Amino acid sequence: MQYEVEVNHRIRQVSVRRADGRFVVGVDGRECTIDVARIDAHTLSLLVGTSSYDVSVVADPASGQLALSVGAVVLGVSLNGRRRWGRREDGGHDADGPHQLKAPMPGKIVRVLVKAGEAVRQRQPLVVIEAMKMENELRAARDGVVAELHVAEGQSVDAGALVAVVVPA
Amino acid sequence: MQYEVEVNHRIRQVSVRRADGRFVVGVDGRECTIDVARIDAHTLSLLVGTSSYDVSVVADPASGQLALSVGAVVLGVSLNGRRRWGRREDGGHDADGPHQLKAPMPGKIVRVLVKAGEAVRQRQPLVVIEAMKMENELRAARDGVVAELHVAEGQSVDAGALVAVVVPA
Amino acid sequence: MKKVLIANRGEIAVRVIRACRELGLSTVAVYSEADRTALHVRDADDACAIGPSPPRDSYLRIDAILDAARRSGADAVHPGYGFLAENEDFAAAVRDAGLTFIGPSAEAVALMGSKTAARAAALGAGVAVVPGTDTPLSAEVSDADMARLAETIGYPLLVKAVAGGGGKGMRTVTEPSDLSGAVRGARSEAGASFGNAAVYLERRLTRPRHVEVQLLADHHGTVLPFVERECSIQRRHQKVVEETPSLAVTPAIREAMTAAAAAVARSVGYTNAGTIEFLLDEDGRFYFLEMNTRLQVEHPITEMVTGVDLVRWQIRIARGERLDLDRARLLAPTGHAIECRIYAEDPDNGFLPSPGRILHLRVPSGPGIRDDSAATAGLEVPIFYDPLISKLIAWAEDRPSAIRRMKRALGEYVVTGIKTTVPFFAWLLDEPDFLAGRFHTTYLDDVLQGRNGRAFGEPSAEVAEVAAMAAALQAVLSPSSAASPADPALAADAVSRRWKARARVEGLR
Amino acid sequence: MKKVLIANRGEIAVRVIRACRELGLSTVAVYSEADRTALHVRDADDACAIGPSPPRDSYLRIDAILDAARRSGADAVHPGYGFLAENEDFAAAVRDAGLTFIGPSAEAVALMGSKTAARAAALGAGVAVVPGTDTPLSAEVSDADMARLAETIGYPLLVKAVAGGGGKGMRTVTEPSDLSGAVRGARSEAGASFGNAAVYLERRLTRPRHVEVQLLADHHGTVLPFVERECSIQRRHQKVVEETPSLAVTPAIREAMTAAAAAVARSVGYTNAGTIEFLLDEDGRFYFLEMNTRLQVEHPITEMVTGVDLVRWQIRIARGERLDLDRARLLAPTGHAIECRIYAEDPDNGFLPSPGRILHLRVPSGPGIRDDSAATAGLEVPIFYDPLISKLIAWAEDRPSAIRRMKRALGEYVVTGIKTTVPFFAWLLDEPDFLAGRFHTTYLDDVLQGRNGRAFGEPSAEVAEVAAMAAALQAVLSPSSAASPADPALAADAVSRRWKARARVEGLR
Is C350 close to A139, i.e. CB distance below 8 A? Predict the structure, then answer.
């Protein structure tokens, strides 16, 4: 089987075939033999040569990616071009289209830092939302202009609620 | 619903009905209201009045019972007369019938302590089996006579293998 | 005292239950709707529902908690930290209901709850405070008067809420022209957060450390201070790493600081456990900052280096027992202890909260490791409360060994289903400035700003390659779960959902 | 030293991995077929298969282990305990392969491995041994000569295997007429167990305690003894509870016993970690019993009261470092520590092994608790090895507090899917004789015999009633799982089986 796997913004061509109770896995053409044992529904133990890796794989609906951990290192991984790029708040849109900022969790809008029509830069905080006793800034995922603003200070929002839309300037 | 539940050799009549998001459970006629929350497939949290109990329920194929733990206390429980009385090695037979002694785990017979035809008493060791680095005595579940003896010293046995049969004298 | 109600949730409720159990006391948990399956409810002997999930409807409801005490027959109340722990009305209501409050008197809570009154108490005990106004700013103060006051204190300065905490109602002012705007902003924020708009001015020290002294005080006049805790590693005014002892505290500073802390506590007739926070400047001078009239989150590190069970002593003191600890031992730490506060936050996404269900959990253990937590596999981390899921504590014979041990333990901490700050700590514990002990209260915010959101735990090429291979293998072995990540696919998760659905149908919550 | 191969499995392999990681050393696990998914394999940096599940085909195969060291590039080997840890051929083979053996020299292992040679060494160092024969009984000894020898020792006496351990090849003889039969039995058992049929005679002391002294010895002549461990709570010659310090050891006994232990070690040029076991009689006299030339299972309790990481020191000593510990501190314990060895055994069924899959696991934590374990939820406890699944260790400021803490922790220990000895310990820790410290090496066997198989943790009427209600509720909520317990019904279990089946189909093991 052949997969296109994107790890940390780099796409790799990965092939998998079975051989003798193990798996031969190729990454961009280089092959190695892996002994795979399933630990539980989310966890695999891989022995690549003698190197041991404990890998857990969980779907992350917020990002549309797979959340992988290799030991204690956490990575976002997309498979076969089903990638959903950008950060959690970008709502699944490409970096060059309009950017829908959605609330990542239920909470209360405690501050609105921009106005509709205002120009914003990538990573500029747009609103502050309070959840789990913490105030959290929701930031622009791209440079652009605030086309829509759907919340007011003091308002409660549900997870996934549309907070703002940023379009290219 | 009505159940016959046997806990530690005593049978209780237990009734269960739903009421207002909770359960009304009667034991031998006395009723109480219980708030039940499922923690996972094997675990329930019960609030009986204000008393909190964490109960795990797992089927124990060896005894044919349910293995319950209430906090750290472990009990064997049978439901609706599907009881399988006696200890694990009694192979599911009633105390007044012939008693089949089966190996509770795979292992090696290191000593045979009785001969076929020999009279034995309840809890008398019949054979010693080694497993998990330990020597373990398998004992008679009842008074009687060794009718059959199916193992010899040095022999390896699988879990569930018939070791001996003890019949009433 | 026979039965203790714990007016709290999460890890601290579990911590108090453990202490009660070791003393042979029964325990009563209280819980909101979101917490029916929480560990403190399952672990306690009794549990009482006290209302809907938002804190104001449950954990902050004095009436509901006292009612729970009545229903369950509790004769004492432990407030934990947060929620009602520093609410003098709660302490008074518990006392008025004829129950023992396991904490200081309502009067001490009220006095030290006002920052300006606490500053006055410290000054009265002969302890230096950060230069600032001795009383709250009058609501009618003119801009000119305010400017004159500020000049006497000096810039940069802080506008702080009298009832404040956690950085709320606080503003930094570096120029006189920003002063009146900052005071207005701080007043409105303080009013909204604490129901008290009063603010005061305080000089902002350069690169201070936050160092604090734990105290125990009994009802027979004994006040015992403990070796200091170093709490300068803060993110947005919230402590995230604490350690003891502090590299910046010499024996002479320790002697002076612990004596000062004890003097303040003694001067207000303080009883039970409390902590006096100081700012320590680069020249070794220290200033009273505030007093926390409750158990601190970070109390375990003190327990690790002194062998004293602080929660057990809180209970014993409340029972009227005498402190019989060896005073010298409390100031002579054995080894070094560090705590990392593991939060359900995504450090690679601006530390946004990451509520959700914990699918799998592996907790570190082994030599020198303690995990104070209420997390379990299957637990839904609720959105309503502080996202602390665990306090991971490492002890070793010296600081470098404790840091290495903590790193080892972080490597064992596996949580799937939610994001946690574990990768952030793994990064921090490799930072040269942290390793050298070169930090102050804004060190972490400065470093984080400099990183500009760069991911922690940037994987090596080897790990990235293994991740790519693992993703493909998972797709081969269970196509549904890996290939379409948005699907409700992973088996155990699906099972849990099925259970939930069934429970709903059957009238379970 | 860069990379350490751990020639062991289970909790001790995980323990050694932790120590290596904290020193920055890479780790290599070895594993049999039964252990592919074991925690030590998942935790190590590298892992090498060494053969089928029976120990003789894997963990006892010197050639396979040295081959794994070559394949993985390991430059040192830690033997753990059990398996090859006291095999002088293994120690020699590791050295001959140019690798560092993290343990004593092969010569010391060989010398102390012979009980009679070890007794001679002790006598040579001026340490009393239990009266007995100085050399093994000749294979041709006549019954009459044997009887004369026995008379000089006195009855009751023990026939013991020269290469023995764990009660194998051992017989108690109370009457002269039983002697020759006992010697024949012991010889045949010793031959079968150790490949060495030699036996010797030793007086059987009345109600002795088993007290042992941990030692560290470097390559520069320093030998340091530690405060004693009390290990008298044994079931069929296997320790099940250990604690330190011992209630029976006065300061004078401690001084004499630790000096004796150090003298024996010094006299044989011992290096690395080792333990000298003594019998302590009711009059406070102690006798050398044997030396264990390896890390002990119960080493953590010593770590808890002294703050010394024994495994880290094993590695440092093997690297040639000098012991720089404060000798006095090692003999002055801080507080009290207890260990319970949690086994996968059914205490209510004659302690029969209870292999199987761990469905859920909750491990105790919090103040003063350490859990050294390799168990995880989902793990299949294999049938081939020692059934130890965890060492639960409690520390507190004194013995009563440590016992209460241990009881609290046992209450938190939840293992479903297999039986464990947790209920047994909960019972033992309430026994008046245990609480009073009134016990000796056969105390537990005597008490257990008296109980005649009665269940531990006999439920109260209240708990039995809750169990009945819970069983019925489970039947209502998931009829398939509760009502027909023999069905393959419980959901998560069924999922796991499905995974397993799929893994099999797809060529996974």
Answer: yes
D329 touches chain C (CB under 8 A): no
Nearest to C468 among A27, A59, A104 (CB): A27
d(CA A37, CA A43): 9
Selecting from C370, C373, C412 the residue whose C-beta is nearest the C-beta of D367 gives C370
Residue D156: cis peptide before it, omega within 30 degrees of 0:
yes
Q: How far is A119 from chain C (nearest CA, A)?
A: 20
Please answer yes or no on whether D41 and A50 come within 8 Å at the CB atom: no
**Contact predicate D143/D218, CB 8 Å:** no
Give the pLDDT band (50/70/90) at residue A41.
confident
Quote the minimal CA–CA distance from B131 to chain D in Å: 6
Mutate to test the interface with D, among A38, A42, A44 (most CBs of D within 10 A): A38
Identity at D307, one-letter amino acid code: G
CA angle (D129 as vertex; D126, D130 as ends), nearest 5:
160
pLDDT in tens, C336-363: 999 999 999 999 888 988 888 898 889 9
Catalytic residues of C: 294
Q: Residues A79, C472: contact at Cβ < 8 Å?
A: yes
Written in H, E and C, the secondary structure of chain B is CEEEEEECCEEEEEEEEEECCEEEEEECCEEEEEEEEEEECCEEEEEECCEEEEEEEEEECCCCEEEEEECCEEEEEEECCCCCCCCHHHCCCCCCCCEEEECCCCEEEEEECCCCCCEECCCCEEEEEEECCEEEEEECCCCEEEEEECCCCCCEECCCCEEEEEECC
Q: What is the pLDDT of residues C299-333, one digit of tens each?
A: 999 999 999 999 999 999 999 999 999 999 999 99
Q: Which of the other chains make 3 or more beta carbon contacts under 8 angstroms with chain B? A: C, D
Helix, strand or coil, per DSSP, at residue C21:
helix
Q: Which two tokens stand for residue D369?
A: 């608790």
- Here the tokens at position D303 are 């770590």
d(CA D246, CA C180): 69
Contact C435, C233 (CB under 8 A): no
* pTM for the model: 0.89
D116: buried, middle or exposed (CB in 10 Å: 19+, 13-18, 0-12)?
buried
**What are the distances in angstroms from CA C251 to CA C43, C246, C248, C286?**
42, 11, 10, 14
Q: Are A26 and A5 in contact (CB under 8 A)?
A: no
Closest CA to D78 of D19, D137, D133: D19
Interface predicted TM-score (ipTM) over 0.90: no
Is B54 within 8 Å of chain C by CB? yes
Q: Give the closest of C37, C42, C47 to B50, CB-based.
A: C47
DSSP A142: S
Helix (H) or strand (E) holding D14: helix D10-22
- What is the DSSP track for D289-303? EEEE-S--TTHHHHH
- Whether D28 contacts D4, CB under 8 Å: yes
Measured distance CA(A146)–CA(D464) in Å, rounded: 65
User: B109 or D193, which is more confident?
Assistant: B109
Say whether D367 and C18 touch across the interface (CB within 8 A).
yes
Buried b (16+ CB within 10 A) or exposed e, A115-127: eeeeebeeebebb
The residues facing A75 across adjacent strands are: A68
pLDDT digits (tens, 9 = 90+) for D22-57: 999 999 999 999 999 999 999 999 999 999 999 999
Q: How many residues does chain C have?
A: 509
**CA A41 to CA D378: how far, in whole Å?**
10
Neighboring chains of A (3 or more beta-carbon pairs < 8 A): C, D
**Mean pLDDT, to the nearest integer, of A73-89?**
61
- Residue D317's CB is within 10 A of a number of other CB atoms, namely 23
In whole angstroms, give the CA distance from residue C452 to residue D79: 47
